[in-house]
Amino acid sequence: MSENSVIKQTLHYQSYEQLLTELKTLGVHEGMTIIVHSSLTRLGWVAGGETTMVKLLQESVSRSGTIVMPAQTPGNSDPSMWENPPIPEEWWDKVRADIPPFDEKASIPRGMGRIAECFCALQETKRSSHPMHSFTALGPKAEWITESHPLEDSFGPQSPLGKLYNDNAFVLLLGVGYGNATCLHLSEALQEQKTWYKQHSAIWIEGKRKWVSYDQLSVDSDIFPTIGLDFEKSHHIQQGMVGNAHARLIPIKELVDFGFEWIKHHREKS
C-alpha cells in the first residue's frame, strides 16, 4: 500500500503521546518482556514511521523491559523448496553456492515488516544465530534470549521461543492476527508426533562459508488463525486499538499450552 493510501485511511493525526497511552491501556507496562509482531501499514500513518514505533515500544516497557521480534531470513535455505516464487531447477546448484552465509548484523529479515527490520538494524539489538529463524532482542534479558539457538531446534524448547515461554513473556500483535504468532510454532515443536525434513543453509564455520545440512521441523502456520479464534472463546485477553490497528496482548504460556492441546487433539482425530 502506498503512503498516500495509508494517509487517506488514517482517521486523524496519531501523536506519539496518543500511541503511547494506547499501548499502556492495552496492558504494556514497564519491565515486561514482549515479542512483537506488527504491521506498520495497519497502524496508520505515524510521523517517523517505524523509527517512532520502535521508540514507542522501548518507552512502553522502559529500560527494565525486554522487546523481542522475529528476524527470519527464509531465503537462506535450499532453493529446491522455494515456492513463492520458485526458481528454475537449473539455477539450484549455483544458488546453493552463492547464498551469503548468515550474518547477525548484515542479514536483513524478510517478510517481518518494517518495524521488525528497523529494530533489527539498531546497533544495540542482540540477534540469535539461526540462519533461517533468528530472533532479535533488546533489554536486560536480550543476551540470555539470543545467546544460543540450535540449528535443529529453531522453534523448540532450547530456542528463544522456549526461553520466552519459561519467562512468562507476552506476545503483542499490532495490526496482525494469530497467523503471525510465531510462538505457536513452539506448540508444534512440543508435540510427541511431528515431522522433520532435511534443510540446508549457508553459515560461517571457523571463518569459512559452509553449506550445512540439518533437520528442520515441519510446521503449518495456516492453522494458527483457527487456534487463535478457539483460544479466545475460552480465554480473556487484553484487546484494543493502537492507532488504526486492532491489537492483542497475550500471555505466551497460555497460548502455547492451548495450541499444544489443540494440535494434539486435531491430529488424533485425523
Automatic annotation (TrEMBL):
Q: What is its EC number?
A: 2.3.1.-
Entries under Pfam families matching the protein: Antibiotic_NAT
Keywords on record: Acyltransferase, Antibiotic resistance, Transferase
Is Mitochondrion among this UniProt entry's keywords?
A: no
* InterPro entries named in the record: Amioglycoside_AcTrfase, Antibiotic_NAT-like
Among the GO molecular function terms of this UniProt record, one is: aminoglycoside 3-N-acetyltransferase activity
GO biological process annotations for this chain's record? response to antibiotic
Top-level division of the source organism's lineage: Bacteria
- Reaction catalysed by this chain? a 2-deoxystreptamine antibiotic + acetyl-CoA = an N(3)-acetyl-2-deoxystreptamine antibiotic + CoA + H(+)
- The first-level EC class reads transferase
- What family is reported? Belongs to the antibiotic N-acetyltransferase family.
Q: What is this protein called?
A: Aminoglycoside N(3)-acetyltransferase
Native organism: Jeotgalibacillus soli
